[in-house]
Amino acid sequence: MSELCILHVDDDQNIRALTALAFELSGDARVHSAVSGADALRLLADGLQPDLLLLDVMMPDMDGPALLAEIRGMSKSMPAIFMTAQTQDHEIARLLGRGAIGVVIKPFDPLTLGDQVRGMLRGSA
């Protein structure tokens, strides 16, 4: 698979840095980080066309599901994966019901995150 362009949205600076490092280690993705839903919407409005959205669920002002709804309202249909610390089956099912192709549970292993995300992308094709 060719290099992925990922838009990662998370209000936690440490998670953004760890996620960028995880994909840097795999060497097959460019990660564009956003600190909020509004920041992500600005990047998209400025012309960023990611192959994948990686969205934190719990963020102030606009959570991940609300952000995904906004992006879908812009007629953008790139796949989305939510990142959350919530592990209950009903919560994961709710997120998948919002249109995500997968859910990454936090804390995640940065050494396997790239493979995990690529597996979700393959499964959605």
What is the CATH domain class? Alpha Beta
CATH superfamily: Response regulator
Shape: globular
Count of alpha/pi helices: 5
Q: Strand-and-helix sequence, N→C? A: EHEHEHEHEH
Mean pLDDT: 93
What is the spatial order of strands in the main beta sheet? 2-1-3-4-5
Largest sheet geometry: 5 strands, parallel
Protein name: Response regulator receiver domain-containing protein
InterPro entries: Bact_response_regulator, CheY-like_superfamily, Sig_transdc_resp-reg_receiver
Domain Response regulatory: 5-121
Keywords: Phosphoprotein
Describe the structure in your own words.
The structure is a single chain. The longest helix has 14 residues, at 13-26. 43% of the residues lie in helices and 21% in strands. The protein starts with a strand and ends with a helix. It has 5 helices and 5 strands, in the order E-H-E-H-E-H-E-H-E-H. By secondary structure, it is α/β, with parallel strands linked by helices. The model has no long low-confidence stretch (mean pLDDT 93). Helix 2 runs parallel beside helix 3. A 5-stranded parallel β-sheet has the order 2-1-3-4-5, with helices on both faces. The protein has a single domain (14-117), classed as Response regulator (Rossmann fold).
Sum this structure up briefly.
With 125 residues, this protein is an alpha/beta fold. It has 5 helices and 5 strands; from the N terminus they run E-H-E-H-E-H-E-H-E-H. The protein has one domain: 3-Layer(aba) Sandwich (Rossmann fold), CATH 3.40.50.
